[in-house]
Amino acid sequence: MSIPQERHLVTAIPGPKSQELLARKQAAVPTGIGTTLPVFVTRAGGGVVEDADGNRLIDFGSGIAVTNVGNAAPRVVERVQKQVAEFTHTCFMVTPYESYVEVCEKLNELTPGDHDKRTFLVNSGAEAVENAVKVARHATGRQAVVVFDHGYHGRTLLTMTLTAKNMPYKQGFGPFAPEVYRVPLAYAYRWNGDNAAEEAFAQAVDMIEKQIGAQNVAAVVIEPIAGEGGFIEPAKGFLPKVAEYCRANGIVFVADEVQTGFARTGDLFACEDEGVVPDIICTAKGIAGGLPLAAVTGRAELMDKVHAGGLGGTYGGNPLACEAALGVLETIEQDDLVGKARRIGEIMLPRLKALQERFPVIGDVRGRGAMIAIELVEPGTKNPNPAAVAEVVKRCHAEGLLVLTAGTYGNVLRFLPPLVMPEHLLEEGLSILEKAFS
Ligand code: PLZ
Q: Which of 281, 312, 334 delimits the end of a domain?
């Protein structure tokens, strides 16, 4: 690894060069584009991000669950460098190339279920989810789409509509797309009742049957762990029940694995944890190490219903992104990143649970593999405490630990280290976090 795997602070965070660049950003880029931590990056790799002032920060964010294999991962770099010198674009719909087909073959093989599958490639997570809905509507001849409380699916008109949270994603951007219905999610920590899985499922079914009519539902779209919503793992049993209900009612079960995919949760895909087999699975983020790529993988008989030319896009499955994806898949397999994600969880969860014992502001510790979060509350209650999150984040950033927030109530700290994070940096990051709480 060319970039030293150590935290190294030489200025305050952000340093003078980053501040200068931030001023330029503010003059050139609209305020709508936010910044979590205004250090301007010059290099990154392994578990470290280096900024324009020469600071090296520990990365607990992976660019929002994208660089699972690490930044500039060697197999990705090698393949992309070779490809960029050969050809950069033809448009797969005009004159195809092998790497696109190879990525699709791999996803057909690796995603849950051994049924006959088809995959096509697009540019972003939102685009993948939109296309899953297009396929489901076309294949079923139905229109309604059912989504869940705390769900996040993107920023386009349809996916923003599918997203639950108003601020900042929807405020002022209406009117929204029609035929989208939202039902409860089995959020165990906040569920008012003893059996979140059964009760939330019963409420969801009741809404579907009374308000929409199951026969009108094209697709149910769900994240197997709600990401932006606060790393909410639905109570065990909920996902299999929803999938089973869909099967029984001819509804296409769409798993949005954009954030949970590619070894992040300690399985290649989060649906595997409870043996759930989606009809369509949407992937993006971790698929290509940061090159823009996303995929829709589904049952052959659904996917092949769409007429020739009904799906596509200029850049979908760009050759550089496809080579990157092949490098990512090789890395996951050859370096056992599924095992590494599990190991990260085994290190993080006990230390965070010990921290919870000491600090009652930590209401819940949860997650799987390298997708871990803590939810902060006012001590002795479950009232969300976003102010405490802001304070902890500020201290972590000042100490050179890059952490992200999440949650419908803005009161969740989420941890998404690259799966190649060296253990000494993982431990050091946790120590910084502990100090921030102290
Ligand atoms: N589905 C489950 O997590 C993207 C959003 C960042 P795109 N999450 C990060 C932000 O604030 O814009 C995401 C996701 C899930 C879909 C998406 C959308 O993926 O690649 O950002 O379009």
A: 334
